[in-house]
């Protein structure tokens, strides 16, 4: 049986909670878009966790978690989040990252902060995580994909 949890682009609408509730019986959980700017809290036998980038299936050893090509992949943040849950006794999760996922770069975060500063009193309240500049680049087909980290010609 296939179960899909799809949001309506309203932001905090409970997708994470529903995914966590169904996750225990799921073989695969896919994070298809978004970044580390938002999150959801999960309380389970391991403790209380605020996940921002990781799919909520990371708590189930039988579940493969996929980070898809629509995710704003902040690699240092992802590693920090994995290290955090493992240090709290969660078994190392099964995670696959799409080779077409685009990498959120430090300059995206800088641009986000500069734009908020530039807007002054008219700022829109960014989390300054680089999400808006990241997606601007992604849709303009500018940036780096995970696959490029493994392409010897690109690395040179």
Automatic annotation (TrEMBL):
Keywords, ordered alphabetically: Ligase, Magnesium, Metal-binding, Nucleotide-binding, Purine biosynthesis
SUPFAM superfamilies, alphabetized: P-loop containing nucleoside triphosphate hydrolases (SSF52540)
InterPro entries to which the protein is assigned, alphabetical: Adenylosuccinate_synth_dom1, Adenylosuccinate_synthetase, P-loop_NTPase
SMART domains recorded: Adenylsucc_synt
GO biological process, one term: 'de novo' AMP biosynthetic process
GO terms under cellular component: cytoplasm
Gene3D superfamilies, per database record: Adenylosuccinate Synthetase, subunit A, domain 1
The keyword Metal-binding appears for this protein: yes
GO MF annotations, alphabetized: adenylosuccinate synthase activity; metal ion binding; nucleotide binding
Name the record gives this protein: Adenylosuccinate synthase
């Amino acid at each position: 049986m296939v179960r899909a949890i799809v949001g309506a682009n309203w932001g905090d609408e409970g997708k994470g909670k529903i995914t966590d509730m169904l996750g225990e019986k799921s073989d695969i959980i896919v994070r298809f878009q978004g970044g580390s700017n938002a999150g959801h809290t999960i309380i389970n036998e391991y403790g209380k966790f605020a996940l921002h980038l990781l799919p909520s299936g990371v708590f189930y050893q039988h579940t493969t978690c996929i980070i898809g090509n629509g995710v704003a992949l902040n690699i240092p943040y992802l590693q920090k989040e994995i290290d955090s849950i493992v240090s709290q006794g969660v078994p190392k999760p099964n995670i696959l990252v799409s080779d077409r996922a685009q990498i959120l770069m430090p300059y995206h975060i800088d641009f986000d902060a500069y734009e908020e500063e530039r807007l002054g009193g008219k700022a829109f309240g960014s989390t300054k995580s680089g999400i808006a500049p990241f997606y601007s680049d992604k849709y303009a087909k500018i940036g780096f994909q995970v696959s490029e980290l493994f392409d010897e010609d690109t690395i040179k």
